[in-house]
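Sample A.
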Amino acid sequence: MEKVYGFTNENIGDFPKHFNFDNANVLTVLGSGDQYFVSLLNGAKDIEVFDINYIAWYHFILKYTALKVLSYEDFCQMFIIDNLDNLNIYNKITPYLPDEVRWFFDKLINLGRKISSIKIKNIIFDNAKMNNIPYLDAKTYYRLQSILQRTNLPIFYNCNLLDILKFTQKSYDIALFSNIYHYLSLSVEDYQEFLNKISCPEILALYTWILNREEKNKFINNGFEVYDIPGVLHQQDYIIKLHRKKQ
């Protein structure tokens, strides 16, 4: 079973400074789901998600549903303090879960497994450093909940980034690809060539906290923009963006 991330360790709160989500069509890696939620909070009109890990989709639906129906206190208790392993709160969510997702988590529990067994262990940041998650502020949480209550689950593509064009040929306003580039074994030139095939003028090509001068110059020399932003785990993170004129 592929493990999932509970929350992002990216400074997603800084994304609206670099991307205009208002009324935007967004394509984003799913991961923890937090790129989806920050896009929604900042006015995205339509968001589609993709991930090679199908368990990430089950976790997302659990989290999406929890945000939709739980109080702020119950959400924090289950997803942060109890690390998913609060069956009393889980039972408040289950009536609203799709049958397939409820079956999956119920099966885990019936097998004597903790729900947290789906998560990547040894999370490299503690709760005190989770101020990068906008909806963990109570006021923002309820604003997100209000939006979600008027929203349906997004379209999900179960694929990796290099196969995304086999699943969708749509045009998007923004694409968020996190740190996937680090796992692709592509040169910067080959990566740019691939990204140019995606119909999207604003692409977060890479989010990273490791970028030496040579790599930075290589991205810049190939038409990418590099922005320093406040880090979550480190003093400084980087957004590497591909910006093109909208067709």
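Sample B.
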Amino acid sequence: MSLLSNLTRAQKVYNDLCAMLESYKWKFEKNDSDLSIKFTATGEDIPMDFLLKADAGRQLLSLYSVMPFTAPEGKKDDMAVACCVAGNGLWDGSFDFDYESGRVTYRMTASFIGSDIGKGLFRYMIAMSGKVVDRYNDKLLAVCSGSMSLEDFIKEETNNKHS
């Protein structure tokens, strides 16, 4: 596929996503030059920031939510394990832990190589990521701050998978 048609497909995904969000009267910030959208959602506890980006080169729609905390040096090993444990039970998406910076990011992607994607997938990505981030952001913060031990986090996750 040519670079121009890749860009055209990415722009269509971006425009369709913007149109859907506008039709729902969502508040969001769009960046036409890099085909990205930022918005904030309110869950049960911690506000959640999201970035959606249509990547023309890789033909991917990517959704990112960076947690509003970073792991201090003494908690990085625990956070790396906690992100792996949390990610083990996810139906879609993953938690990425940057060991150097201590930053945790939730990420979900969908390919649009040779295909059209639309409202159903956009709604799914936003809803699923909102559920996942809202479920885990406070627990990961608790491990990061030391108010929950890694062992307790693992026990809770293990019990939740079997219930």
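B remarks: Residues 108 and 161 are 21 Å apart (CA to CA). The longest helix spans residues 119-145.
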